[in-house]
Amino acid sequence: MRVEGVDPLILNQVQSQTQKPTVQDAKKINVDSEQEKRRQEGQAGYSQGDLDQSVARLNAATELFNIKLRFKLDHEKGEIYVLVIDAKEGKIIRRIPPENVLKVASQMQQLVGLLLDELI
């Protein structure tokens, strides 16, 4: 038995079934880069100064209401969190993402403003 060549139709079928579609790879790369941009934009919604000011406002409000909590910025592994610390024992109660801290500080400031127009 002698095989002279391969039928071009069969060869084309085999090639089309074994080729990896490069378009899917390009789409995946594009989606990954868009997700990275969104993540960075989410982090860029605040500055270090905004966080420092929010933490200071939260600490002032907890002192005003005699709440035994303290707030502290924590930079761990390139991520920023705000630690909620029990003032008596010095234990970390919770880690809060910066976006939530900005919201809480704003709401706390509004609450203080409703109760007191001016600090004495």
UniProtKB/TrEMBL annotation:
SUPFAM superfamilies (alphabetical): FlaG-like
Region span, Disordered: 14-49
Composition skew (Basic and acidic residues), residue ranges: 25-41
Pfam families: FlaG (PF03646)
InterPro entries the record matches: FlaG (IPR005186), FlaG-like_sf (IPR035924)
Protein's name according to its UniProt entry: FlaG protein
Organism of derivation: Neomoorella glycerini
Lineage, highest ranks first: Bacteria, Bacillati, Bacillota, Clostridia, Neomoorellales
